[in-house]
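testing teh design pipeline on a random one, pls ignore if ur not involved
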């Protein structure tokens, strides 16, 4: 598994585990609810990381208009997560 994706998965697990400690009776480790919450948090963390990368794309370094900027952001996101097209 890619290191960055593994880190986000661990963050999601730890967040969900903490939620279960705070008295959410539905959120017992291993329960369907726990797994659903963990997946939702994992997806949220991925979206936030992608949004951050897109926001930080250096527009000055990209020539070719909006489509080139979008391609540059896409490539940065793929590279950040170590995913090939």
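output:
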């Amino acid at each position: 598994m890619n290191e960055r994706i593994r880190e986000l998965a661990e963050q999601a697990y730890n967040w969900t585990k903490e939620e279960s400690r705070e008295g959410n009776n539905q959120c017992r480790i291993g329960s369907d609810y726990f797994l659903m919450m963990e997946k939702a948090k994992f997806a949220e963390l991925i979206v936030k990381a992608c949004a951050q990368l897109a926001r930080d794309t250096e527009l000055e370094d990209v020539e070719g208009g909006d489509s080139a900027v979008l391609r540059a952001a896409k490539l940065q996101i793929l590279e950040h997560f170590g995913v090939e097209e």
